[in-house]
Design brief:
Chain lengths: 554, 554
């Protein structure tokens, strides 16, 4: 497979012509319609279900559709841009047109990452990539070294967390589209900030999903929470694997993204001899060799299985790091948060101590919530393989009312939770606004245009809270107000306790960056002990001559 | 987990009392009914959904049922014996009562295995284990070192290949039940014959399947050809894993079985950090250490993925050997067999040469039948990890009319196919009767007592032949005649060409056993070349000073 350029979809050649390559094994005839002038360019059948075309009748910015069997006029599944939304024409984009000026940028080592997770639509009043650029100096001042952007693949409407994206290669038009993302990354790099992009390889969103018209992108061998699984190992899987490998490569190569955060990889079902994650890693390693630019692969994974993060040559999938939700759960329960739902497995301060010591809380014990023995020991995995946080989009937004920690814990407890995270021997991550204790919620919002789907989402949302027994009505995800009230209130950050909290976060981050004993992520130089009676956690860390003891009174 | 004794089901204690341990997390109350006298013995709830009882009110041979919630009187899923069939009472069996006299037996190294696959019901007129004993001298004379018995787990009725078994621990009553199997194994060992038992860990048969009354033995996360997959990694999977681990251990420990042949392990879906096959291997290794008796684990696997047969310390699942159907397919197509269905991937003599050289025909190439790139290289796996055959129960019985090679190929071609198999640098396997060119078919037969199921099987059978385009009517699997006409005709073996064929097989086996150059399974001392025009295969093998060249004219 090519790593130097994208081969699927519509791409510009060195000679300025455009090449189209569409995988459509279900079709008997395929052509590409140039919308202006309604010109249909027939595509030539290739091996393995591909259709190809080379043409000088396209230019950067043109709208086109793929025509299957002369009667289906569809968007391109490998589309780079959907300026009019998920149901409408795709747009030709010359990914090489952007004039990068980040040649002096070098991605941070993971040890240096202090991640700031943000949602483009609610981070700023404008909800665009351009508006993010206006906040970079603020983030730099806070001490952030990497922003993590929630998924930007084109979704239905203008309001979505991003996990309903249906065009994995197309950057959400309402955020500014692909060129605005390139511009944002370039600006980040000039300011010394790395960019992590959240990508979804475990399912494809419900609305605007025309994939099955083209070919077997899905398999009925496995069931996932979102229906049939993406076809990574069944008949015809090669093209689907290539699709996702090329997606990962594109972000790194053509958007200069520094790290990907792969959503819920436990829902990627792949019994192939080589797991798709390992194959992605191999290709990314190849790209890194070619460009000299390092990139990180970070996973969200609910399996406590080190196979995912072990190196390829140790039969691992080679992922560089993973989120540990268990740190969050243990911290939260210790801080006095509720204990129902998946929190039932977390017993408080002993578990918090365990995660400092062992990364995973469950590394072989019986989990009452999962009804099975769960996890393996992560003894040999260094601290920079684990991302920790005291809140994130999911932990906030999956609450019925989407309350942040600021609405659930006292001011002092919020500070303690921030410190617990920022002095951990792992990679810390903040969720936008927590640094000033943003009181607005981060609620679940969508803007589906299909009324049946919208209703199903409303119902599903209600069903989801059965385990939490929260009271009151769930906000309507379809209501624009739900989106608007989830936006950050920037005017607060300079006021009263918000300002105090901001100063506190900034100080903590500075401590982390400049004290080697905190900055050092050698897990053999960490010891946490829990005093259950006093609800006190003692975290000891040492490095060379330095020694740190943190007493956390919960 | 205990390896020294079975812990689930009903088992005798050293003190002569019986212990019962039943996994029934779905039940609110569980008792054990002793059928004679209708005595209900309440069981005590344990952790993880188990229920336990110790009682002196049972003795070897007693019938009992498990009573769930006072109103469901069911057989025991861990039953050792179902003397009245799959729907009726279970029977207490003292597995330690048998007086073994095989203390001098030592299982053959896999290199010495010459396997003879047999189906108990059709191998002899009587269709019992006892009747097999009467044929052992015959098999020994032929040169067989191991018999492989098709599955014996209790199934509905008296006629079944065995893959519809529903009590994995119970030995089919119509074959003679558990004690007759112990007797057969003991006799085999006295005659120097190893016993391979075919076991099914990928599904449970349809009739008499009360498992879901007890607990989540199945998961809807994965779909298999037989419906929901067995639950090896979902909530509550620990008990299901223990169930199958204990099953493997029981055959080795309590029945002195020498090797297991695990049916279609590609249909075992398990994303746990440790695959269930690897966990079985660990426990078997532990048992071997305890008893000093070696055992082999052989898999049927349709994945060409060496992960299954690589050692545990190389991140493999540790299986000792696997069937290679691809050898059969390549041989068969080379011999002039049809090329439709799954045979479409096999191009004849070059592929036969490839399997001699590389074990797998597909080790990374695109498979037109599977519509994907398939397989990995098996370069580092020794010859004794691969079982080859020119026919087996599946390849014969899955044909619409169940014709053996004797009905499809000329006499000379049958001999060539036999030689091709017996001089291969792999472990050879015969299917019962092929050594005298048995003309009777081996057809698909069942004896379900549920009429709806019987009808579904009839229909399914017909649908299966869509790819083969065979002509005529499929024999009715439910008709007893289908079973009867699949029996061997022993009177033929001493007559005419049948006798010639037998002598030929015997000679080939003798050659294999006594010529080091054939017996040697070092794959680096093998070279096969195909001359496509002449349809001639040259197989060269060498060992120390010896050199063999076999010219096979197809």
């Amino acid at each position: 497979m090519e790593t130097v350029k994208r081969t699927i979809g519509v791409n510009i050649d060195p000679d300025g012509e455009f090449n189209a390559l569409i995988w459509a094994p279900n079709a008997g005839r395929v052509s590409l319609r140039v919308c202006a002038g309604r010109i249909d360019l027939p595509m030539q059948k290739q091996d393995y279900g591909y259709w190809a075309l080379k043409t000088d009748q396209l230019k950067d910015g043109d709208l086109y559709r793929i025509v299957l069997d002369d009667d289906k006029f569809l968007p391109d599944p490998s589309s780079l841009s959907q300026p009019k939304g998920v149901h409408e024409a795709s747009q030709v984009i010359d990914l090489n047109a952007f004039a990068w000026t980040d040649e002096h940028w070098k991605n941070w080592h993971l040890n240096e990452y202090i991640i700031y997770e943000l949602h483009t639509g609610t981070f700023t009043p404008e909800g665009t990539f351009e508006a993010i650029e206006g906040k970079l100096d603020y983030l730099k001042n806070l001490g952030i070294t990497a922003i993590e952007i929630m998924p930007v693949a084109q979704f239905a409407g203008e309001r979505n967390w991003g996990y309903d994206g249906v065009y994995p290669f197309a950057v959400q038009s309402s955020y500014g589209g692909p060129k605005a993302l390139q511009h944002l990354v370039n600006t980040c790099h000039q300011k010394g900030i790395a960019v992590v992009l959240d990508v979804v390889y475990n399912h494809i969103g419900p609305e605007g999903n025309y994939f099955s018209e083209y070919g077997p992108y899905f398999t009925d061998k496995y069931n996932t929470p979102w229906g049939n699984a993406i076809n990574f190992d069944d008949a015809w899987c090669d093209a689907v694997r290539q699709y996702y490998i090329e997606n990962a490569l594109m972000w790194f190569r053509d958007f200069h993204i520094d790290a990907l955060r792969l959503d819920a990889v436990h829902a990627i079902k792949d019994f192939s001899p080589q797991h798709i994650l390992a194959e992605i890693k191999e290709h990314v390693d190849h790209l890194i060799k070619e460009t000299g630019r390092p990139h990180h692969l970070i996973i969200e994974c609910d399996l406590n299985d080190t196979r995912y993060i072990n190196p390829l040559d140790k039969a691992g999938f080679g992922m560089d790091a993973q989120w540990i939700d268990e740190f969050h759960h243990a911290l939260r329960v210790t801080a006095g948060g509720e204990r129902d739902g998946y929190y039932e497995d977390f017993h408080g301060i002993e578990h918090l101590a365990k995660t400092y010591n062992d990364a995973y809380v469950y590394d072989g014990q019986y989990s009452a919530h999962r009804h099975k023995n769960f996890g393996v020991k992560a003894t040999d995995n260094p601290g920079n393989q684990f991302i920790v946080f005291s809140q994130n989009h999911d932990q906030i937004g999956n609450r019925m009312l989407g309350e942040r920690s600021s609405q659930l814990f006292s001011f002092e407890m919020q500070k303690l939770m921030a410190a617990a995270t920022l002095i951990a021997p792992f990679i810390p991550m903040l969720f936008m606004g927590e640094e000033w204790g943003e009181p607005n919620p981060f609620q679940y919002f969508v803007s589906h245009t299909d009324p049946e789907l919208a209703e199903a989402v409303r119902k599903g949302r209600k069903a989801e809270f059965a385990a939490f027994h929260a009271e009151g009505e769930a906000p309507d995800p379809m209501d624009e107000q739900t989106f608007i009230q989830s936006k950050l209130q920037w005017q607060l950050k300079d006021k009263g306790q918000h300002q105090t909290m901001f100063a506190y976060y900034k100080k903590l981050i500075k401590l982390r960056q400049y004290l080697p004993v905190i900055h050092n992520l050698n897990r053999n130089q960490v010891k946490a002990d829990a005093d259950k009676d006093k609800q006190m956690l003692t975290l000891q860390r040492w490095y060379q001559g330095d020694y740190l003891v943190a007493l956390m009174n919960f």
